[in-house]
Design a protein that fits this description.
57% helix, two-stranded parallel sheet, elongated
Length: 100
């Protein structure tokens, strides 16, 4: 049986301000702190096989949409400020895109 893919989603700025060495680096140059974090997470991904997604939110944050029929997941998604759609709505979204 194939092993399921594992993902780690990291809020980049939260980690930068929580790790003292990255916070110091950020005080001098924010791009250096981001690059250092990304390098460490890339190494972790390479060593473990866990797929890492780093998100740097703030100005210009992206919109996130989650398709689920699980009501607890939908509540969590909405509480976190993302949008959720039902599987039926996803079907409509996908089929309307194919027609265009």
């Amino acid at each position: 049986m194939p092993q399921r893919a594992r993902y780690l989603i990291v809020d980049g700025h939260s980690v930068i301000f929580a790790w003292p060495e990255l916070r110091k680096l950020h005080a001098r140059r924010s791009s250096s702190a981001r690059e250092a974090l990304i390098k460490q997470l890339r190494d972790y991904q390479d060593w473990t096989g866990v797929r890492v997604v780093v998100v740097f939110d703030g100005k210009g944050s992206f919109e996130l949409m989650v398709a689920t029929s699980d009501s607890m997941e939908a509540e969590t998604v909405a509480a976190c400020g993302a949008e959720w759609i039902s599987p039926e709505a996803l079907r409509g979204l996908v089929s309307s895109t194919r027609r265009n």
